[in-house]
Amino acid sequence: MAALAVLRRSAPARLLSGTLCVHSRVLAPWRQYQSNRHFSNDKILVEMDESTGVAVMKMKNPPVNGLSLELLTEFSISLEKLEIDRGCRGLILTSASPKVFSAGLDITEMCGKSAEHYAAFWKAVQEMWLKLFGSNMVTIAAINGSSPAGGCLMAMCCDYRIMADSPKYAIGLNETQLGIVAPFWFKDTMTHTVGSRVTEQSLQLGQMYPAPAALKFGLVDQLVPEDKVQITAAAAMAQWLSVPDHARQITKPMIRKPIVDRLVKQREADIDNFVSFISKESIQKSLQAYMDRLKQKKQ
Ligand SMILES: CCCCCCCCCCCCC/C=C/C(=O)SCCNC(=O)CCNC(=O)[C@H](O)C(C)(C)COP(=O)(O)OP(=O)(O)OC[C@H]1O[C@@H](n2cnc3c(N)ncnc32)[C@H](O)[C@@H]1OP(=O)(O)O
């Protein structure tokens, strides 16, 4: 068993993330974490149940859990801590705010900032994706509200998705509706989840799907009443964890490693693409107009 535990924390982590070098940097917080099984940053709350080996991670960036640079950074640090914790086998990702899982990338991080800021922000988005999509743990998204764009990306990174059964809540990659373009690794993640044809159509149209429609083509795996999302996620996790870790952990990268590697190989070029795209005056105008529409919706 000890050998298997080592396998869980070594080989697949190397295979998937390509970011093992950061482990040494997190040793100090990890020691702190050992004595305190709940930890909280400003934007991320983690509750670890030692009896089940399952951590519940809640995003808490009201009002809509916009994925800001701060949230993304805290997310990646927290996930890294769990990843190296031998007692943690599963992660349930959810929102501390009712009605919204995540509104996706915080648009204010992509408006009117410097090229250096855009580069740092995009690197944090990449890091979140590499860690979550490449995680060794069983990952389940408990989608307790709307989940556009980057929120949908996070949910798709997980192994299994449970969503609140309400037509009020929608999920999808709506980037083109903002006049922006989902990068290739967003597209790869959606293709991995629902296949090429649906992805092609969804991405071009920037389609948001109400929960019942999302279930029909497998963008989410299960719908349950809103107040049952967390308990259902815990039950699904127990089922996933009944599979021996070593077998599941060798299987997961068979599918995901080539997708992860594609971004790892061109991270810098992808950052350059993002910075040059987002800095264009026409794109800035589109984003500003979209933000104005969001605010007008309320009046
Ligand atoms: C050669 C070319 C190569 C191409 C290269 C490609 C390079 C890459 C290009 C760029 C790629 C970027 C990828 C982007 C991904 C994203 O995630 S973009 C974000 C998209 N998100 C959205 O569209 C969501 C918008 N929000 C909503 O739909 C709703 O807010 C909600 C989530 C459904 C919640 O609704 P409700 O509860 O009614 O809240 P609201 O009243 O609408 O909002 C409350 C306040 O929050 C603000 N807000 C909402 N979303 C965001 C956000 N994403 N970022 C920042 N702020 C947001 C909203 O404006 C309200 O603000 P106030 O009025 O000040 O209260």
Overview of the structural elements:
The termini are far apart. The chain has 13 helices and 11 strands. It has one domain: 2-enoyl-CoA Hydratase, Chain A, domain 1. The chain is globular and about 50 Å long. The protein has 299 residues and is α/β, with parallel strands linked by helices. The N terminus is likely disordered. The protein binds ligand LEDWP2DD. This is Enoyl-CoA delta isomerase 1, mitochondrial. InterPro entries: ClpP/crotonase-like_dom_sf (IPR029045), Enoyl-CoA_hyd/isom_CS (IPR018376), Enoyl-CoA_hydra/iso (IPR001753).
CATH superfamily: 2-enoyl-CoA Hydratase, Chain A, domain 1
CATH architecture: Alpha-Beta Complex
Which hetero ligands occur in this complex?
ligand LEDWP2DD
What is the CATH third-level topology name? 2-enoyl-CoA Hydratase, Chain A, domain 1
- Low-confidence runs: 1-36
Order of H and E elements: HHHEEEHEEHEEHEEHHEHEHHHH
TL;DR?
Helix content is 52%, strand content 15%.
List keywords for this structure.
299 residues, alpha/beta, 2-enoyl-CoA Hydratase, Chain A, domain 1, seven-stranded mixed β-sheet, four-stranded mixed β-sheet, 13 helices, 11 strands, binds ligand LEDWP2DD
Secondary-structure blueprint:
Blueprint: H1 2-9, H2 11-17, H3 27-35, E1 38-40, E2 44-49, E3 54-59, H4 69-83, E4 90-95, E5 99-100, H5 115-133, E6 138-143, E7 145-148, H6 150-157, E8 160-164, E9 170-172, H7 184-194, H8 196-205, E10 209-210, H9 211-216, E11 222-224, H10 229-241, H11 245-265, H12 267-278, H13 281-297
Parallel strand pairs: 3-4, 4-6, 5-7, 6-8, 7-9, 8-11
Antiparallel strand pairs: 1-2, 2-3, 9-10
Helix pairs in contact: 2-11, 4-5, 5-6, 5-12, 7-8
The structure holds ligand LEDWP2DD.
Ligand LEDWP2DD is lined by residues 63-64, 66, 99-100, 103-108, 146, 148-150, 174-175, 178, 180-183, 273-274, 277-278, 294-295, 297-298.
